[in-house]
Amino acid sequence: MQLKPLKGQHHVSAITAKAKENYTFYTKTLGMRLVKKTVNQDDTSMYHLFYADERGNPGTDLTFFEIPHAGQTYQGTNSITKTSLRVPSDEALQYWLKRFDEFGIEHDGVSHHTGRATLAFRDFEGQRLELVSDENNEGVASGIPWKESPVPEAYAIRGLGPVTLTVSRPELTEKILIDVMGYREKGSYPSLVEGQPDVKVFETGEGGTGAEVHLETRKDIGRERPGRGSVHHVAFRVESKEELEKWVDYITNIGLPNSGFVERYYFRSLYFREPNGILFELATDGPGFEGDEPFETLGESLALPPYLEPQRETIEKNLKPLDTAQS
């Protein structure tokens, strides 16, 4: 079966305990656009919020499930330990340093340990994030910043950068990335933790910041216990529904337990876990977020796919109101 290479990151989905504060941080502080306010289709009692570029182009979405009673995250292995966000230049990182100080955001200094200028920071729940400069980047194109963002376009976040996986048995994840998903090893850089192996870099498709997975090995800590401020899963881009159906057949035929084809309305999906237990999703580039809302008012109302619309009254009763109107 001939499969096209995966195109890079599609979205990253994380956990928050506070949707209102989450909305404020990612739109007002980070300047991303809320392109969809909907619900977790597997548990409609919780919000699912999508922050992205101007229209939620594939590869730009950082999403959150609201779980109000989510406990503390105990950081460890077999988890997604860092989500990076692309900015256009090294100069942009200087803007963000000042902005983080102004808003009281916990952050590190600018670093070049990945070969690119980066700036690690945490949100109000300890979500592990990093800005990465695209100044010398070649590869997958970035998204387009929203013109109504409080952050100037010259410094704005333009999509997802590399995602870091931290595992205890790297050879198992490597095998999935290379032999199953078609990634290629690009290089490595020293671990930030003394005495631990180098972090390996894998890329797919056109490569570049939007198509890299960084694989970190840790033998000195236990398994992560997820909660608020942790990442639930990472999704990778597939061109079309037809291509995704080929991936469903392929993943099933090689014996990997998986979800099968899943209709999410805004895109179509396939879920499976790699051997260290990290949840991977393959998701189609379309249809996108404008099938049920116009571009001008994306994210302002509660959007439900057609198959959940008959339950709207019940769903709305179970959600705490979240005002996301722009005017």
Automatic annotation (TrEMBL):
Residues 8-134, 159-285 form the VOC domain. PROSITE patterns: VOC. InterPro entries: Extradiol_RC_dioxygenase, Glyas_Bleomycin-R_OHBP_Dase, Glyas_Fos-R_dOase_dom, VOC_core. It comes from the Bacteria. Coiled coil: none annotated. This is BH2175 protein.
